[in-house]
Amino acid sequence: ILMSDTIPCLLSPWSEWSDCSVTCGKGMRTRQRMLKSAAELGDCNEELEQAEKCMLPECPIDCELTEWSQWSECNTSCGKGHMIRTRMIKTEPQFGGTACPETIQRSKCRVRKCLRGPGMEKRRWKEAR
């Protein structure tokens, strides 16, 4: 009777390394080989798969922004004016990520008509009664 550990493992050559598991940044790649000898000839403790780290160019990081703020008050107390709202950049774009869009918006606003000259308010008040 042969001792099981006297039979050498018959192994196929290693396969080519697989592609990296990611398309950018840090990932893993693997390669395999096959056991060619029959299993009943004894246990084979050789490794059949190997893995290693792989590194591809950095992934693009897109610009990230906070939500818009509330609109500001109108900048005039009467007549036409404007109001603004803003948002902050949370993440600057890197490695070819999408650029940041506008971080400030203006909008027209209109407050009640400006009264011209003295006496306008009194006249209006009389008409309203």
UniProtKB/TrEMBL annotation:
Q: Which Pfam family, just one, is annotated for this protein?
A: TSP1_spondin
Tell me a GO biological process for this protein.
cell adhesion
Where would one find the signal peptide in this protein?
A: none
Looking at the record, the residues that make up the Spondin-like TSP1 domain are: 63-114
GO terms for cellular component: extracellular matrix
Q: Does the keyword Glycoprotein apply?
A: yes
Q: Which UniProt keywords apply?
A: Disulfide bond, Glycoprotein, Signal
Protein's recorded name: SPON1 protein
Which gene produces this protein?
Answer: Spon1
